[in-house]
Amino acid sequence: MATISITADTVSAVMKAATPNKTKFYFDDDLAGFGFYRTTKGTGTWFAEFRPVAGGSKRRLKLGRVGTLKANEAREAARKAIANAALGKDLAKSRSDERASGTVKELVEAYIAGKAMKESSRAFYRTTLKTQIEPHLGSTKAVAVLRVDVQRAHDKMSKKAKYSANRAMALLSAAFVWGSKRGYVPEGMNPASAIERNREEARERYLTADEMARLGDALREAETSGIPHKASKSKHAPKEKNRTVYGPHVTGAIRLLMLTGCRLREILHVRWDEYDEKRGLLLLPDSKTGKKTVVLSAAAQAEIDSLPRVGVYVIAGQSAATEDEKPRADLKKPWAAIAGRAGIGDVHIHDLRHTFASVGAGDGMSLLTIGKLLGHADTATTQRYAHVDVNPTRAAANAIAGQIAAAIGGR
Q1: Total-model pTM
Q2: Residue 119, domain extent
Q3: Which helix (H) or strand (E) covers residue 332, if one does?
Q4: At what angle do helices 104-114 and 119-128 cross, to 10 degrees?
């Protein structure tokens, strides 16, 4: 047994030294009961020693591997364990109970299944769990997760997808809050709270008049002569010589996104029986913000009327008119090909919705009207287009300044 000042440097020196011929213990000269030991295989393990009750036998609680936990993190964990022991809480004993507790994956799964939410949100959360949370924290016992574990997981997620990493933290935090109220984890436990998240900036990409014209040309080319294969990697669209031709439901979906400002799923999931042809409406029973009525322009209605009626969905998918018909999943490959052909490869398909709003704001329509057309539940959401809405402001400025200029006289 040796007593040393445990710091990152002193521990590093011990771990680099020759492997001991028997397990050697090192205790900190500052925090009694805190230390680490190194085995004959060279492995180092942090621990905390304490007496659960006065006069009782000592307990040793393993805190984690040297290298996995930093010295300052291990010291803080040891301080917590020793402090709890002084209050009569035996963390060493509670570790045996952890084996029977659920994992982070099981906690989040229970939250997704038990929380009232839209099915689209449920599907999104399941994907986030599988791709983001599960690889880093999924098998860890929920009651054993520390904030430092979650922060490290977020840092690793952020290297691949910053925004998705933030979404994963929001889901994890919600799951712990939900679980703490239902006995899955101790009350108030939420290691995902106060995690330093990535800075997010609202994307503002609108198509110019010239870009819209080029996109229109690309759409017509896509449904007639076809897009050259170099611009398309689709394996499903019919091929015509060296080009890929896209059917009217693909090009029609893109046009409807532009002409309505709807979200992608709203267009891909709309059924023919939700189309009120006489009144020119789409009566959506379940959009992102709940039940929604879309007022169709003459151009949008003409586009819908031109589409072949195949199956129950306005935009027919691969399973159209079959017993197990499902809506089209996405437009990723066709959009990449058509947008690339139009020279707007940096445009996301959701930017078509932003374009619809920006055109309205630029023409002087009120943000309230634009918000109603887009189906915004919160008027604050529409405020992102306020900087485009300059015409009414300029008209007001001209009216006021005109009267002042008349009063003071010109040059």
Answers
A1: 0.54
A2: 104-180
A3: helix 332-342
A4: 170
